[in-house]
TrEMBL record:
<comment type="similarity">
    <text>Belongs to the FGGY kinase family.</text>
</comment>
<feature type="domain" description="Carbohydrate kinase FGGY C-terminal">
    <location>
        <begin position="289"/>
        <end position="495"/>
    </location>
</feature>
<dbReference type="InterPro" id="IPR043129">
    <property type="entry name" value="ATPase_NBD"/>
</dbReference>
<dbReference type="Pfam" id="PF00370">
    <property type="entry name" value="FGGY_N"/>
</dbReference>
<dbReference type="InterPro" id="IPR018485">
    <property type="entry name" value="FGGY_C"/>
</dbReference>
<dbReference type="InterPro" id="IPR006003">
    <property type="entry name" value="FGGY_RbtK-like"/>
</dbReference>
<keyword id="KW-0808">Transferase</keyword>
<dbReference type="Pfam" id="PF02782">
    <property type="entry name" value="FGGY_C"/>
</dbReference>
<dbReference type="InterPro" id="IPR018484">
    <property type="entry name" value="FGGY_N"/>
</dbReference>
<feature type="domain" description="Carbohydrate kinase FGGY N-terminal">
    <location>
        <begin position="11"/>
        <end position="266"/>
    </location>
</feature>
<protein>
    <recommendedName>
        <fullName>FGGY carbohydrate kinase domain-containing protein</fullName>
    </recommendedName>
</protein>
<keyword id="KW-0418">Kinase</keyword>
<dbReference type="GO" id="GO:0005737">
    <property type="term" value="C:cytoplasm"/>
</dbReference>
<dbReference type="InterPro" id="IPR000577">
    <property type="entry name" value="Carb_kinase_FGGY"/>
</dbReference>
<dbReference type="GO" id="GO:0019150">
    <property type="term" value="F:D-ribulokinase activity"/>
</dbReference>
<dbReference type="GO" id="GO:0019321">
    <property type="term" value="P:pentose metabolic process"/>
</dbReference>
Length: 550
């Protein structure tokens, strides 16, 4: 009898726009990344706390990396496309042309980045209203959300404000470029714009903060058509976008996700059987997905809404359909480590030695710590060195963007040993900050047993081990390091109709690679470090109070 023709492999494209680069991956139905490409994008910092990008530059990079990953692949096997991106604000006029978000009138710089803190006075006024929508962002809105940025534009750039046709969250801008449809994702509007899945927009909030003009046009500028993440947008990829991206026209395009939420989607639903984890045979509500890159996000889900002071949410169906999401976060993690290491006087020596050994600077630093630890566990080297990591303010659980970084225990030493120690203390501080967030979530009602890590920092074994030891919880790493891209591809897979639900796609396409267990013998040391950690912020507030009394 003639043998049956093998079924052609189905592929999905995931595109991830991060803070400094755009990445794309071709992913199969089992969650394997078959091809991967990356291209840097430009960031402008015209003044402190102002960070801007160009939507044209971002889209061009999306097109370049997508063409690269699908080169040589049979177009008929590519079934769907999913986007994720940072929650940056894109501003365009009524003809969808870019509008300046800066006083210089540079219209190509039409994106206010997520990490931009220019709207500090606006967010302070918004929080002073104590409006009910603030209950869904931990009681206080972050300067990184969109309403304060909109208010800043209205108050500081009246010419741009008058010309605005649309404000997009960057993930929604990408789905519009691909389909020509201005629908927004439930993820973006719920998490960053105060939309709620049951009541929609709250007119009284926008009127109270001075943005009543958005209400007048029935929210056309910020979105009055909302889709669930993974839902198919419009009629799929337009001919123009298909040509730009090198993809077949008409393929399914999914309603998008914020990048951290895509990472959560890529890891949190993985099958953990046989790994002896406390979350085995437990619902995914016992897991927290931690997406660690330039900043870090801590994503926990629950079956009923849990209000956690200082932690964003609860957001219904913003990541996993049918579940409530709480989102903790740290505004600078990878960026902080880079800042501390590259700013040290011994950095040129580190760079030269790492290059000579053909290792990255962080692999070299990890090896150097092993050399100087002697008989001690590596983590114990910082017994007299402590860092408070909020160099860019505190997102969770203190929601205080005015907090500053602190280092206690410096000496006059300037060598590579000292650089390695401050690097270690900074990683520990980030992990202690994670513990602070998890404790707030658990105190409010979350039952968290296991951490699932993804993102660039999850490739650093020291970062991972410190998170396991300091939180006392096992850390799961995904088989595919690029979990954010897998999450974006899961969206495309759902939009294509090849999976019945997001949950089914998560289970099939999310795979465990490695489990890192905490060393419980080190618990007492890290409990003491945590005591010191909490004292640091107390002292900062005390000395600020003294100085404010002048």
């Amino acid at each position: 009898m003639p043998s049956e023709k093998p079924t052609a492999v189905k592929y999905y494209v995931g595109v991830d726009v991060g803070s400094a680069s755009v990445r794309a991956a071709l992913v199969d139905g089992f969650g394997t990344v078959v091809a991967h490409a990356e291209q840097p994008i430009q960031v402008w910092e015209p003044q402190p706390d102002h960070y801007e990008q160009s939507s044209a530059d971002i889209w061009a990079a999306c097109c370049s990396v997508t063409k690269e990953v699908v080169r040589g692949v049979d177009a008929s096997q590519i079934r769907g496309l999913g986007f994720d991106a940072t929650c940056s604000l894109v501003v365009v006029d009524k003809q969808f042309q870019p509008l300046a978000v800066n006083s210089e009138g540079q219209s190509h710089r039409n994106v206010i980045m997520w990490m931009d803190h220019r709207a500090a006075s606006q967010v302070k006024r918004i929080n002073a209203t104590q409006h009910r929508v603030l209950n869904y962002v931990g009681g206080a809105m972050s300067v990184e959300m969109q309403p304060p940025k909109l208010l800043w534009i209205k108050e500081n750039l009246p010419e741009s404000w008058e010309k605005v046709g649309y404000f997009f969250d960057l993930p929604d801008f990408l789905s519009w470029k691909a389909t020509g449809v201005t629908a927004r994702s439930l993820c973006t509007v719920v998490c960053k714009w105060t939309y709620t899945s049951d009541r929609g927009w709250d007119d009284s909030f926008w009127k109270m903060i001075g943005l009543e003009d958005l209400v007048k046009d029935k929210y056309e500028k910020i979105g009055n058509h909302v889709l669930s993440p993974g839902e198919a947008v419009g009629k799929g990829l337009t001919p123009d976008a298909a040509e730009d991206l090198g993809l077949p026209k008409g393929i399914a395009v999914a309603a998008s996700l914020i990048d951290a939420h895509a990472g959560g989607l890529g890891v949190i639903g993985a099958d953990v059987k046989g790994h002896n984890l406390p979350c085995e045979n437990q619902p995914i509500t016992s897991r927290v997905a931690m997406i660690c890159g330039t900043s870090s996000c801590h994503m926990g889900v629950s079956e009923t809404p849990i209000f956690v002071p200082g932690v964003w949410g609860p957001y219904f169906s913003a990541m996993v359909p049918g579940l409530w999401l709480n989102e903790g976060g740290q505004s600078a993690t990878g960026k902080l480590i880079d800042h501390v290491v590259r700013g040290h006087v011994a950095f040129p020596e580190l760079e030269a030695k790492a290059e000579a050994s053909a290792h990255s600077i962080y692999t070299y630093l990890n090896s150097h710590l092993d050399l100087i630890k002697k008989s001690l566990p590596v983590g114990f080297l910082t017994v007299d060195l402590h860092v408070w990591p909020d160099f860019h303010g505190n997102r969770s659980p203190l929601t205080d963007l005015t907090l500053k970084g602190m280092v206690v225990g410096l000496t006059l030493s300037r060598g590579l040993d000292e650089l390695a120690l401050i690097y270690l203390a900074t990683i520990q501080a980030i992990a202690l900050g994670t513990r602070h967030i998890l404790e707030a979530m658990q105190a409010a009602g979350h039952e968290i047993t296991t951490l699932f890590l993804c993102g660039g920092l999850s490739k650093n074994p020291l970062f991972v081990q410190m998170h396991a030891d300091i939180t006392g919880k096992p850390v799961v790493l995904s088989k595919e390091v690029e979990s954010v891209l897998v999450g974006a591809a899961i969206l495309g897979a759902c939009a294509s109709g090849d999976f019945a639900s997001i949950q089914e796609a998560m289970a099939k396409m999310g795979k465990i690679g490695k489990v890192v267990q905490p060393n419980h013998e080190h618990k007492r040391f890290y409990d003491k470090k945590y005591e010191v950690f909490l004292k640091l912020v107390e002292h900062q507030r005390e000395y600020r109070s003294i100085m404010n009394s002048l």
